[in-house]
Design a protein that fits this description.
2 domains; two-stranded antiparallel ribbon; alpha/beta; Glutaredoxin; five-stranded mixed β-sheet
Length: about 180
C-alpha cells in the first residue's frame, strides 16, 4: 500500500495526532469549565415560531407551548460529538435549577428514529431532560443555525434573549447564577 517508509511514517503520525485530538475533545480537555457564558445577540433572521418538534408520543410542540417560563433550548444530534460532550452538563443544569420558572429543552435535529435517540440518552445516563425530536431537520434553517449544537435562551414570552453556538459546560456556576438571577428578576 505504501511505497516508501517516509509516507508510512507521515500517515502514521497524522493518524495518531487525529486520534489524540478526537480523544482530547471527547473527554472535554479542550472545554474550559471556567469560561464565562457569553450569549450572542438574538438572531434577527431566526423564525422560532416555525420550529416544530415532537415528543415520544408524536405530540407536536413549538416554543409557545413553554410560555410562562424561561427556556434554554438546545438543538443537537446523536452524531454530533460536541453535542454528546455537553449533554450531561445540560442534564445537571436541569437538575439544579429546573422548575416551574425554568426548563432545559433538548431537540434532536436528525432523521434518526425517536427510539434510537432515547436509547442514546439512556446510554449516557440522561435522567432530567425530556427529549424532543425534529425529524424534518428544518429547525436549523428556521433558527438560522450555523451548526450543532446551538443553544437558545428564551424569555417567558418565547422571545429569544440570546444564543450560544457550540458546546458549553452548562452546569457551571456562571450559568447557574445567571439563570437564578433571571428567575428572580
Amino acid at each position: 500500500m505504501f511505497k516508501s517508509k517516509k509516507k508510512l511514517i507521515i500517515y502514521s503520525i497524522f493518524f495518531t495526532i487525529s486520534l489524540l485530538l478526537l480523544l482530547f475533545y471527547y473527554t472535554g480537555l479542550f472545554n474550559n469549565s471556567s469560561e464565562q457564558l457569553k450569549l450572542s445577540k438574538p438572531d434577527p433572521l431566526s423564525k422560532i415560531e416555525l420550529v416544530e418538534f415532537y415528543d415520544s408520543n408524536n405530540n407536536k410542540y413549538n416554543i409557545t407551548d413553554f410560555s410562562g417560563k424561561f427556556i434554554l433550548m438546545n438543538f443537537w444530534a446523536t452524531w454530533c460529538l460536541p453535542c454528546r460532550v455537553e449533554m450531561p452538563s445540560l442534564d445537571r443544569l436541569q437538575s439544579i435549577v429546573g422548575d416551574n420558572q425554568f426548563q432545559v429543552v433538548i431537540v434532536a435535529v436528525e432523521r434518526t428514529s425517536f427510539s434510537k435517540i432515547n436509547d442514546f440518552l439512556r446510554e449516557i445516563e440522561i435522567k432530567n431532560l425530556v427529549n424532543f425530536h425534529d425529524p424534518s431537520t428544518m429547525a436549523g434553517k428556521h433558527i438560522n443555525a450555523t451548526g450543532l449544537p446551538i443553544t437558545v435562551l428564551f424569555d417567558k414570552s418565547g422571545q429569544e434573549l440570546g444564543r450560544y453556538n457550540g458546546d458549553f459546560e452548562w452546569d457551571s456556576n456562571d450559568v447557574i447564577n445567571y439563570i437564578t438571577q433571571l428567575k428572580n428578576s
